[in-house]
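Incident log, structure service

09:12 report received: a user says their structure output differs between two submissions of the same chain.
09:20 pulled the input from the user's history:
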Amino acid sequence: MSKTALSCSSPLEIKVKAARALLRIAEPQIPHLIDLLKRGDPAKRDGLSWVLARTGKCNPSELVVGADENLKKWISYIVGYGKDKFVQGDVDALCNADSQVYFAASVLWQIVASWVNDLREY
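09:34 re-ran on a clean worker, output below:
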């Protein structure tokens, strides 16, 4: 990408493009992405969480072990948006590992499954 193209993009547009690019190359990098999610800057967990939710290639009950409160919120997002991508037994195990994270994810499942999820005002 040229320097000009980057300067014309907003910070949000750059983040969106980066997250989409990361998703395309994520599969062999899942262990590294999980490590970044756990140990990296909490302000950068959003893009990593989006990618992990769409791959379903991590075990949520293992992610929650030792997680800080911010990470627990992102694990709820990962499982909430990615439920269909995860092994059901791994999702069920999350209920025993951290019932609050499981509950938050289950609320998100209800919202995502509802007809109001994509409702827009005109």
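09:41 both user submissions now match this output. Likely a transient worker issue. Closing.
09:42 reviewer note: Residues 3-113 form one domain. The chain has one domain: 3-113.
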